[in-house]
Amino acid sequence: MITSPLRDDMKTEVCSLNSEMSQTTHLKSGEDVHISPKQNASYSNGSHPISAPNRIEAVLCYENNCGTQKYLEPVISDAANDVNMEAEPNTLPVTKKMRQQKEITFQDIYREEYDDDDDDFEDSDWEPSQEEPKKWFCTNCTMVNLDDVLHCDICGEYKDSEILSLGFFASDVAREADHAEFKSEVRDGYKGSYTCKSEVDNRTAVGYDERMLLHSEVEMKSQPHPERPDRLRAIMASLSVAGIFPGRCTPISGREITKEELEMVHPMEHIEAVELTSSMVSSYFTSDTYANEHSACAARLAAGLCADLTTAIMEGHAKNGFALVRPPGHHAGVKQVMGFCLHNNAAVAALAAQRANAKKVLIVDWDVHHGNGTQEIFEANKSVLYISLHRHEGGRFYPGTGSADEVGRLGAEGYCVNIPWKCGGVGDSDYLFAFQQIVLPIASEFAPDLTIISAGFDAARGDPLGCCDV
């Protein structure tokens, strides 16, 4: 969270299944009917549209609520398209209606209407392998791909990427055989963390704790949640492959934030609501914000790492830092859990910096969604300048806040700067222009003692929610 460049190999994405395949189903009369779906036609729900003038349609029998599938006689559109029933009994195309893909928002992507477990054309003669083609999830962008595709359709990551054999994606055997040295290096690095002042003043500090991986959605869904443990695993594995961490960085050991520190950002009722999840196997604050018995601990670790990383930089033990933490935080308001976020990590870090004698703190939020929680916390605070670049669409894009006229309040007008995009598709040139013309001039005039980056990666190219091109 503290000054880190945007990297394509760190972005998180949830994508639909885009690949061409063919399947064969058996009608009750015994005919084999070849189905050739159009590419990119459905939203990863197993339904594929077939276009044909003459078709057999499958319907459900509603007599006495029996629910049995029946097959209608072929519909003949005109004489020119007549089908020779006797000559070619096995060539009748089958039509199945395509579920229309709606515009998916941040809030409703995992509502029931997008759950792809249901199948409106099920035949008991199908083989399991035909119903559920083998798939693999990209370790870089989390895109789902068919098993026979070697490169991710979105980011181009190789199916058997090198990060699969290193770090946190390796098999148990590989980890024990090949990565004892890696783990030892991590442990040794933590022993020499910033608390032992040495020659690490000009190095980058990295905050990470494996216990944050225990925060996960218990309910199994066919399309995995975009904010899941694999997100950090992919980042850590990529850093390992590149030789960046732990070799060339200073590790910051994990620490759970105290209630006293959290109370500087959130009221006790908010803190206790999060802590209550420790006694629950599975719970939801909103339809997309889950928790399990480890979530409260993970949230404390995330906030604690951000606070300690900031303190290390302010005290001169590191030049800059990168907090690899989850759950994220910029949607968490003063007393509201939402948008995958439990505690506001950026706010905790900013206040930790001020306790370490930072007079002015700048928070730059380049997540594609507006950080409504961070703005709420600091909108009346002149010592913290909040600048956000985000997709807005006149308030129609989640969370709906962040218009250009939201500038702060109660004497702190001008200390909230919102740069709202009116549509998706913005790219590097748009961001560079915004930084050169707005962000950098304002930041230079403000002259912060510390800059915190809320580094959401969903504005990156290929993300299906952000739909931007950075």
Question: How would you characterize the overall build of this protein?
Answer:
The chain is an alpha/beta fold. Among the domains are: 135-166, no CATH class; 202-345, Histone deacetylase domain (Arginase, Chain A, 3-Layer(aba) Sandwich), CATH 3.40.800; 359-469. It contains ten helices and 15 strands. Strands 14-13-12-15 form a four-stranded parallel β-sheet, sandwiched between helices. A three-stranded parallel β-sheet has the order 8-7-11. A two-stranded antiparallel ribbon has the order 1-2. The radius of gyration is 26 Å and the shape is globular. The two termini are 18 Å apart. Residues 3-60, 68-130, 166-187 and 189-200 have low confidence and may be disordered.
What would a concise description of this structure say?
By secondary structure, this protein is α/β, with parallel strands linked by helices.
Give me the Rg, rounded. Answer: 26 Å
Number of strands: 15
Q: Give the proportion of residues in helices.
A: 10-25%
Q: How many strands, what sense, and barrel or not for the largest sheet?
A: 4 strands, parallel
Overall form:
globular
Specify the number of helices. Answer: 10
Output the CATH homologous superfamily of the domain at 202-345: Histone deacetylase domain
Mean pLDDT: 73
Order of helices and strands: EEEEHEEHHEHEHHEEHEHEHEEHE
CA distance, first residue to last residue: 18 Å
- Order of strands, main sheet, comes to 14-13-12-15
Percent of sequence in beta strands: 5-15%
Helix-strand category: alpha/beta
Query: Could you say what the CATH architecture of the domain at 202-345 is?
Result: 3-Layer(aba) Sandwich
At the first level of CATH, what is the class of the domain at 202-345? Alpha Beta
CATH fold-level name of the domain at 202-345: Arginase, Chain A
Multimerization state: single chain
Poorly predicted ranges: 3-60, 68-130, 166-187, 189-200
